[in-house]
């Protein structure tokens, strides 16, 4: 196994700021025990004023999200970054692929900062460009490549987005996967196939549950097996070629717990993210992106009961914000997203105070060619017609 095939290097190793892999923090962090961290973060934010715009993904810790100028899912944050041409610095409280997308969508003079470079994403790491290029060649050898449109989930590295851009594909998020897939299936006539990267679950759930494709029309491409573990006949018969990747948080929710909770909490409604396994989503009452989950809980009547299958920081925050509703986490064994949690108050303070002193730390900068090609796929996404019900 080569190093690029490793799903995730142990956090804190290596020094590759262009990858999703964990890297060391180069600076002197304030200690987490410093009682003045909140005041220091606020003072730095006040000093920077309109020069800085802080974006916070919904899975961020409370201690960080309180300083976000805007919170959102990855789709909303991509749009918000693109809509802030005046901010000199974008401090991205989220993970590496999101900061890369922000860099691609913002102007050349704007600088994107990720407070801890170890905030990668294990799912994004499951599709390396070399593996995807190998798969693309294999699709040509099987005689199907001309029918295939690559679609990548936002949760992928910039070079995978660029691959999609130069091969007629598009980016999608959990808010617009159905719209993006509908667009993709129109691109090569009635026999169009989609290569969906890197989350097999979002791809399968969207194709089967929202678009009416059958499970038999979905095949899984395993990058660790010769020819993805698939025959030319299987590729020929498939409509959805799903990359064998998953989210290490959402992939752990199990259908058994859904049954258990239904038996123990009267009237409970199960609300899950589409990165969950198909078997979990099948048993759920509602499925949608983090924005959808938040809006659903906001609109729910007092006294209603919910079990939510998404990242724990968000579920805890929803429970705190809605004490009139009964909100539980869908599983006892699933925990926080460890890489989202890398962005803590000490890293935030360190990044912001460095900006005040005139030093840009942990800048995320995508090279020009990758930017240009990835922008094609991102812009196709931003130009998709309308909004889905899940947005
Ligand atoms: P969304 O922000 O698109 O809901 O995705 C969830 C996620 O896993 C982000 O890392
Ligand atoms: Fe990646 Fe899953 Fe964490 Fe999102 S929640 S950053 S997809 S590992």
UniProtKB/TrEMBL annotation:
Protein EC: 2.5.1.72
Keyword terms: 4Fe-4S, Cytoplasm, Iron, Iron-sulfur, Metal-binding, Pyridine nucleotide biosynthesis, Transferase
Binding site for iminosuccinate: 57, 74, 153-155, 174, 273-275, 290
NCBIfam families according to UniProt: nadA (TIGR00550), PRK09375.2-2 (NF006881), PRK09375.2-4 (NF006883)
GO biological process assignments: 'de novo' NAD+ biosynthetic process from L-aspartate
Function per UniProt: Catalyzes the condensation of iminoaspartate with dihydroxyacetone phosphate to form quinolinate.
Predominant cellular place of this UniProt entry's protein: cytoplasm
Gene3D superfamilies, per the entry: NadA-like
Localization in the cell: Cytoplasm
Name assigned to this protein: Quinolinate synthase
One GO CC term on file: cytosol
Listed pathway(s): Cofactor biosynthesis; NAD(+) biosynthesis; quinolinate from iminoaspartate: step 1/1
GN (gene name): nadA
């Amino acid at each position: 196994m080569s190093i690029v095939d490793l799903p995730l290097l142990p956090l804190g190793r290596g020094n590759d700021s262009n990858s999703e892999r964990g890297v060391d923090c180069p600076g002197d962090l304030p200690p987490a025990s410093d009682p003045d961290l909140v005041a220091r973060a606020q003072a730095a934010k006040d000093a920077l004023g309109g020069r800085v715009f802080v974006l916070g993904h919904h899975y961020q810790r409370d201690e960080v999200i309180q300083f976000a100028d805007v919170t959102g899912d990855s789709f909303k944050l991509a749009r918000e970054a693109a809509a802030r041409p005046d901010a000199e610095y974008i401090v991205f409280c989220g993970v590496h692929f999101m900061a890369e997308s922000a860099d691609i969508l913002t102007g050349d003079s704007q600088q994107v900062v990720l407070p801890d470079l170890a905030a990668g994403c294990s799912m994004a790491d499951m599709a390396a460009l070399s593996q995807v290029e190998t798969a693309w060649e294999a699709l040509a050898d099987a005689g199907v490549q001309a029918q295939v449109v690559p679609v990548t989930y936002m949760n992928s590295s910039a070079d995978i987005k660029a691959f999609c851009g130069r091969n007629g594909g598009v980016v999608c998020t959990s808010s617009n996967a159905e719209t993006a897939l509908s667009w993709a299936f129109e691109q090569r006539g009635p026999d169009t196939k989609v290569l969906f990267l890197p989350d097999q679950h979002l791809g399968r759930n969207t194709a089967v549950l929202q678009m009416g494709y059958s499970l038999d029309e979905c095949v899984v491409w395993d990058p660790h097996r010769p020819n993805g573990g698939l025959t030319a006949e299987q590729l020929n018969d498939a409509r959805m070629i799903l990359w064998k990747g998953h989210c290490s948080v959402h992939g752990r929710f199990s259908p058994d717990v859904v049954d258990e909770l239904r038996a123990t909490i009267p009237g409970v409604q199960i609300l899950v993210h589409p990165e969950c396994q198909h078997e979990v989503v099948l048993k759920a009452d509602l499925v949608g992106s983090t924005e959808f989950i938040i809006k659903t809980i906001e609109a729910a009547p007092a006294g209603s009961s919910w079990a939510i299958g998404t990242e724990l920081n968000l579920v805890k925050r929803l429970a705190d914000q809605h004490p009139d509703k009964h909100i539980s986490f869908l599983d006892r064994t699933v925990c926080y997203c460890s890489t989202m949690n890398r962005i803590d108050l000490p890293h935030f303070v360190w990044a912001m105070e460095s900006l005040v002193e005139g030093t840009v730390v942990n800048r995320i900068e995508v090279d020009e060619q990758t930017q240009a090609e990835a922008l094609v796929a991102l812009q196709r996404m931003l130009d998709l017609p309308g909004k889905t019900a899940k947005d």
